[in-house]
Structure formats: structure tokens, C-alpha cells
């Protein structure tokens, strides 16, 4: 085999130094002088150098106060969560409702369909065994329903925003059930509910 220049000889020596494992220390010292800097690189040196992340982005810098979050970052109703409260959560069911007339049912004139986008109200049925209507404390926010009785507690994050001032609640003593009807707030109400 014939070599065409000094660089080919150096490359072969570098390759043999990488592949041989049975060399003496004297050979290593002698070969290390002949081996170029590129031959000492390994697979970890392939590609661009790794990025260093010494700089902290501004979004993670805390203010001088000792709060670890801002008030607007909290989920609505999280201040009602009490992990030490032993009262059980009652059974509940959420039903979406829409007003449908004969023109919708037979002729389809209003363009409503059975999807949740065409629903106007949300009915929340809550079973409250051994409870009187006077024992129920109900607080409704835009995205959260809070119900408290002496024997039960329910903190329910609602699946859709509602009009918190418009709604009604009715307690049925014979079924021991509370029905809360809430009108839903939709961004496209003017389009979906004509």
C-alpha cells in the first residue's frame, strides 16, 4: 500500500492509536506526540458544542415579595378546597340543556344541532341524603359551584362558564336532591342561539 502524503500517514497512526488497547505507556507517550488533536476526539465531540443555560429568563425571576404565585394565577374556587374537611362529596350529575321548539325538531329552521355548542343551560343534579333545604349553602361563581351542608361538601369546577347572577336552584325533599339550573355564557351566543 502506498501513502500519498504525510497527512495520510498521520491519520493512519491516529486511527491505530484509537483502536489499539495493548500499548505500553512508552508507546502511548510517543504516539500521543504524533497523534493530531482531531484523533483524541470521541463520539461526544460530534456536532455543535452544547448550549450553556447560565442566564435565567425574566419570566422565572421572582419579585421581592415572598409570594410564589400571583392571585390571578390561582384557579377559581381553589380557596374552597379544604383537605382537612372530612365531609364526603355527594353524588352529582351535569346535564346540558337546550330549548327546542317544533320548528327546530321538524323543520330545522334555527340551525340548532344536538352538540353542546347549541346548549343554553346546564343542570346540575346533586343528591343530598338526610339533608333539609334549610341546611344547604350554595355559592355559584362563573366557573365554580360551591355547596356546603352539615354532612356534605362539593367544590365543582364547571365545564363551561356561566352567568353567575342568572340561575335557579330547587330542592326536592322527596328525592333528597338539589337541582341547580345555570345559564351558560358562550363567546358566540349571538351566532349559535338565534
Descriptive overview:
The protein is α+β, with helices and mostly antiparallel strands. The chain has two domains: 1-61, no CATH class; 75-192, Immunoglobulin-like (Sandwich). The chain is 18% helix and 24% strand. It has four helices and seven strands, in the order ααβαββββββα. The strands form two sheets. A four-stranded antiparallel sheet has the order 1-2-7-6, with no helix packed on it. A three-stranded antiparallel sheet has the order 3-4-5, with no helix packed on it. Helix 1 packs antiparallel against helix 2. The longest helix is centred in the N-terminal third of the chain and has 14 residues, at 6-19. The model has no long low-confidence stretch (mean pLDDT 76). One of its GO terms (biological process) is axonemal dynein complex assembly. GO terms for molecular function: dynein intermediate chain binding; protein-folding chaperone binding. Belongs to the PIH1 family. Residues 89-183 form the PIH1D1/2/3 CS-like domain. It comes from Betta splendens.
Map the helices and strands.
Blueprint: H1 6-19, H2 25-34, E1 92-97, H3 102-107, E2 121-127, E3 137-140, E4 144-148, E5 153-157, E6 162-172, E7 177-184, H4 189-192
Antiparallel strand pairs: 1-2, 2-7, 3-4, 4-5, 6-7
> How many domains comprise the coordinates?
2
Q: Runs with pLDDT <50, length 5+?
A: none
| Largest sheet entry | 4 strands, antiparallel
The CATH C-level class name of the largest domain? Mainly Beta
CATH topology of the largest domain: Immunoglobulin-like
Strand order of the largest sheet: 1-2-7-6
Number of helices: 4
Shape: elongated
Gyration radius (Cα, Å) is 36 Å
Q: Topology as H/E string?
A: HHEHEEEEEEH
Helix vs. strand class: alpha+beta
Strand fraction band? 15-25%
Helical percentage: 10-25%
State the distance separating the first and last CA atoms. 89 Å
Task: Give the averaged pLDDT, no decimals.
Answer: 76
Using the 3D structure, state the CATH architecture of the largest domain: Sandwich
Strand segment count: 7
Family: Belongs to the PIH1 family.
Pfam families: PIH1_CS
GO cellular component, one term: cytoplasm
InterPro entries: DNAAF6 (IPR026697), PIH1D1/2/3_CS-like (IPR041442)
